[in-house]
Amino acid sequence: MRRLQGARFVLELMWIALLGAAAAHAAAESPEIKPAALAPAELLFKSGAVYTVDGARSWAQAVGVRAGEIVYVGTDHGAGAYIGPGTRVIDLKGRMLLPAFQDVHIHPISAGLQANSCDLSGLTTAAQYTAAIQKYARAHPGSGWITGGGWLMSAFGPGGRPRRQLIDAVVPDRPVLLSSSDGHTHWANTKALELARITRDTPDPRDGRIDRDPRTGEAIGSLQEGAGERVAAIVPPPTAAEREAGLAYALKLLNGYGITAMQDAQVFEDDLKTYRALERRRELTMRVVAAIWWERAQGLEQIDRIKRLRREYASALIDPGTVKIMQDGVLENYTAVLLQPYLKKPGNVRGIPMVEPGFLKDAVARLDAEGFQVHFHAIGDGAVREALDAIEAARRRNGDLGHRDHISHLELIDPADVPRFRDLGVIANFQPLWAYADDYITQLTVPFLGPERSSRIYPIGTLYRSGAVVAFGSDWYVSSANPLEEIQVAVTRMGLKGETHTPFLPGERINLPEALAAFTINAAFTNRLEKTTGSIEVGKDADIIVLDHNLFAIPVTEIARSKVLLTLFQGSAVHGDLGSL
Predict the structure, then answer these.
(1) Helix-strand-coil split of the chain, %, nearest 5
(2) Which of 37, 217, 323, 437 has a CA between 20 and 30 Å from the CA of residue 542?
(3) What average pLDDT does range 292-321 have in this prediction?
(4) CA 256 – CA 248 distance, rounded (Å)
(5) Least confident piece of the model among 160-174, 293-307, 418-432, 519-533
(6) What values do phi and psi take at 186, rounded to 5?
(7) 3-class SS of residue 266
(8) 219-233, 238-252, 502-516: which has the minimum mean pLDDT?
């Protein structure tokens, strides 16, 4: 009897499987036979390599668009039902069509402003920096401040400690303040330090460090983390016009890289005003999740201000429903928080927790209860644990409210904390362009971590295999905003320009489908946009890009050479020209 019951059970399972397969097949075919096919598409792409990034990671040949929405995904044959007298048909000739990219950690307004100031990006030596500073000063005469940045800490050895005298030699009479490429260190000349009243007797702030001459105690000109804010606070802010010009520059560049949604990782009210100004002029060609900056010098009372900003600036394209908390610094200047001390540094140095961990739990729980997503900066394994502990405390207090908190950077994670990302529903927000053995890792990081911890740097593959949601961001202006460059490094763990020929921690590589998902559907999930964007599916907005090459048909070391030929945002071209395809 039991054997008969078992056989009947197996048959029932077989029927269920068959029915499920039939339903799946019908669903896959539905775009080609549904009644909506009677309404023609306004725009139809055919004969393409369409990688949809849907749940099944399926492929298609053709995509139809009407009124800014995707109305058809399927074969060229099925697309015929969507072609009418007014349909514009684009023959892709085998080129690749993807959902548009999304960036979940970026600084577009700051990047645009820096591009129009003293920009040191792309230079690599102290001599090149001083020459560029002198050239900029001559091209912009006067007595006002010279600002900008983009210099590499690796150009100045361990700790990244440039000296003021280097700038004094070329600009002695004007204040100069330049941020490092990662934004965690400022380089000031003597005039700027004098205006900020920083002397040998000025104490270090709680969240930073004034680098000093070991003999005299005088400030040498490099200011780590919060110490730089003392000088930055007296720099005249950019005008509204300058900010809007910076954002316009950023939007054009990002649309050119195929990006149509982003999470700005450090937003103040002036930034929200800038986004709103361009939106009102219909020049905001991007969905923006605005991560409002958590002021470390303030307490829970700032939540009322954050709620006001969300209420006043929320719009169709702007979502100010996220709060950014910076929990530590970076490993290169020993301010990232570690569970165990840095090597070769006397005094049991473990970094600087920017927010006291006990208070962090209260703050995150309150923000969670008020409906905010929390976006953490955490580089060291200690800061990662503090962020996870705060999220876990919020879950215990409020239950899981589904706000999709995420932790960015994640250079070092203790193995015990890896499963907590999946268990707590915390998104792992990586910047994959950093995950190869450049000078920052080989010279400024590995010697101060040691072999065991260095074997766990940027554990992207580990987090993917753990079942956590992994999403990608660029952290531009810190590094390139081009997702194709980031994807190539994520897949290869090698430099883009042949800097390295051996993958760095090859077990942490991921495959191309995983990397594409991190910049599309997973990023959309992080940005709370997955119901309308992030994949190519009927009913979603037509946020679409066309590439010149099928990424799956070229060597992985050539991914970054591919170009975005066309970017559609809500069905309208914001980069490229349909007529040129």
Answers:
(1) 40, 20, 40
(2) 323
(3) 97
(4) 12
(5) 160-174
(6) -115, 145
(7) strand
(8) 219-233
